[in-house]
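Recall the central idea of this unit: under ordinary conditions, the amino acid sequence of a chain determines the structure it adopts. In this exercise we apply that idea directly, starting from the sequence alone.
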Amino acid sequence: MKITRQALQQIHAHLESGYPNEACGVLLGKDGVVTEGAPATNERTDSAHNRYLITYAQKDIQNDADRRGLEVIGYYHSHPDVPARPSQFDLEHAIPWPGISYLIVSVCKGKAVESNSWRLRDDRSAFDQEPVEISA
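Accordingly, the structure predicted from this sequence is:
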């Protein structure tokens, strides 16, 4: 996954502000490069500290991206105080769109410490890690 330094910093700030709960959003960009994160409200009310849900904001974010000529490149969320690896819950609830990246950021004690990106296999059996390439 390619992402601008500014977009990654913006996403980190959003996820840090959500600590100690999971925070989430949508990766937007053009030509396969993430240029911004569109923050969404974590709609989970039962276990927001270790789960996230985006439903209501998805349509608005998609419409805004379309108006501005941007693409949905993927999704991002935080893992408070645990590694930036997909959980079984993440696997079971991943959106099976081809080519979508899932950026997971480990936020420990309120600070983003690790960012990893993942792609869901076509058979939905697992995620494969993909390199995160930061551009100017």
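The helical segments are 5-18, 56-67, 88-93.
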